[in-house]
Structure formats: structure tokens, C-alpha cells
């Protein structure tokens, strides 16, 4: 089996700093987290940023400063979220690309998201896909449900391959309203990747909350890659809170090594995902 990529998603848009103080929200906290996660084996950082008030923002100046700071402190592949928070308008989400990250997320369909709705209209998705290609940004297609994979097959069929020519998807499982976070769902999605998407398409997977471990272990066994971080879980195990994002990255690296797979460094990750 090939080496494994670890993506760290350290902050997200849903957890509040007041409820969970270890969450990195300032630029200094984010850079410190990035450095320690790289040491622990992460090679991609999936970034949501916060404002002075610790609330989610898509402010372009802050995003650009964040990309620059992460690039000077680490070799990590910098992936900005275009998903933002469920309340973010499409125009702000598209403008994220102007911060010139290496990668950006592109969610492949609308999904119920707890009590809210995470809107991803077809026309918006196609605009994002084409804009990423125009700007030389490599997408990570976010998959919250099985139909999102067939939607991606349709997108690639109608609008062509992304920048770099390689297709990489990320299963985000266990969101209330999306696909469940368990072993059969990971294997069903891995099977759908093989059936519907171009040969060589890679996938990573993350399970929200208590679904973290079954999703991680199944993805490792199925040849997939891993995403971990406080965006997805604040609990390390039953009754124990996560101490740091690096702790989650270390556990992911241990899981890959246990399965006899090497942990890919940023250079290996760039090569695999076609990031120039
Ligand atoms: N915060 C969610 C509404 C992404 O980063 O692209 C969307 C999300 C997906 O986290
Ligand atoms: Zn995200």
C-alpha cells in the first residue's frame, strides 16, 4: 500500500473558543499548531480562520496573511476552506481563492448540517471548480454523502479535470444530516470512488466526534488517507478531551505505521496530489 497523507484541520468554523480553550484561533496559535502537527507527521493543513473576536471570518487580508505565515513557518501544503461557516455568502467563499493557497476545499453538494443547511448549489460548485483551475489551486473535493461522489463524476465529465490533473476527495462522515461515520460507509465510498471517478483518484477520510476512530481505522485499511483535528473532534477518547491537534496527528501517524504504511511528508504529498 502507498504511503499515507495526514491532513490536520485544526480549527474549523463550528467549535467556539469559549467552550474549548485549546482551539487555535489567533495567527500565532495557528502557526504554533501547524509547526507541531508537521513534526507529528501532518503534510496538509486545512485552514479556517477566526477574527479578533474568535469568530469565523473569510476576511481576505487575514487569509492572505495566514497563507504567508504558514508558508514561512512550515513546508505544509496550505489548503484553505471555501466552505467557511454555513452562514457565509457564496461571493466570500469564492474570494478565498484570491489568497492563493496551494489547495482549497470544494464541497460537492448541499447537506443538512445539524440544525442548519450547508448550501452548495450546482452552479456555485462549477464556478468554484473552474475558478480554482484558472487560479492554479488544487481542489480537495469534500464528500458528505454518497451522492456527492456521483455529482463529482458529473462535474469532471462536464467541466474537465482540476488543476494538476489529479483528483483527490475527502470523506467527511458522521455529520448529523450526512453519511454516517462507520466502516461500511467508508468502504462503500471507497468502492464508489473506484467505480465512478478517474483511475488513481485518492481519498482521505475523517469521522466527526465519536466516529473518528472507526473512520480512521477503516480508511487506513482501505488504502485511504487521513484527516484529523479539532475541526472534527474535541474528544480524544471517551471521557478525555483532545489536548492538542498534534496529539491527533501523532495518533494518525501511529495508525498508518501500525498498518505498515509510511507517513508521507509534504514533498511526497505534493507529488502524489499533483501540486506543483
Ligand atoms: N464548516 C462547514 C460548514 C469545508 O471546509 O470546505 C463546512 C466545512 C467544509 O468545513
Ligand atoms: Zn472545513
From TrEMBL:
Required co-factor(s) are: Zn(2+)
Keyword Zinc attached:
yes
Is Oxidoreductase tagged as a keyword? Answer: no
Query: This protein is called what?
Result: 3-keto-5-aminohexanoate cleavage protein
* Entry superkingdom: Bacteria
Say which species the protein is native to. Answer: Salininema proteolyticum
Keyword annotations for this protein, in alphabetical order, are:
Metal-binding, Transferase, Zinc
Spell out the InterPro entries in the cross-references.
Aldolase_TIM (IPR013785), BKACE (IPR008567)
